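INFO  loader      accepted 1 record
INFO  loader      residues=220
INFO  predictor   begin
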Amino acid sequence: MSEPTRVALCDDHAVVRSGLRRIVDDEPGFDVVGEAGSAAEAVELARAERPDVFVMDLGLPGTNGIEATRQVLVVSPATAVLVLTVHDDVAYLRKAFDAGARGYLVKDAADIELVQAISQVARGEEYVHPRLGAALLGAEATARIAGPGGELSGREVEVLRLVALGNTNAEIAAELYVSVRTVESHRAHVQQKLALKTRADLVRYARDHGVLEGLPDADG
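INFO  predictor   done
INFO  writer      dumping tokens
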């Protein structure tokens, strides 16, 4: 009989940890070896238990989950970190993998996909939430857009795309879960980097440089 996959959990909300533990405990072949509510607790748990998989929240108090991931892997290099977060954002996904995480799962899918994600990273594979995987491919396809003022970031490309599709700043803010002021800042950076002045300039640029390719409403 094979040994169970040893899983540790880190989230600053006890209710969330309890729900995660219930999902994992209900699955044969998994053993929850401990819980943590902060980065410091996660590091101590990793040092003591050397879990196979550490399910890690990003929004921790004080030291965030990105840095906690790095620290956990210092004391337990063989542990596979699976990030579980509310951030449905390619930028956070990249930061998590840069820190050494092997998986990235959005919390709204945790009850369905958590066990699959844990199993995958425990086998040495990577796991990316399907919705974010598609977004990552799209971002990578357009990541090298640049102008006289420099290269656009992934988020700036998103803003350019949404502007070109006719969205207002308020609509873009709602779509990206950021403030209108943040959208205005991104949009100003896009215009500065691409040396463009008007919305019509942005739309034309987006169409000419493939930013809208593959989108069903690109011509609407």
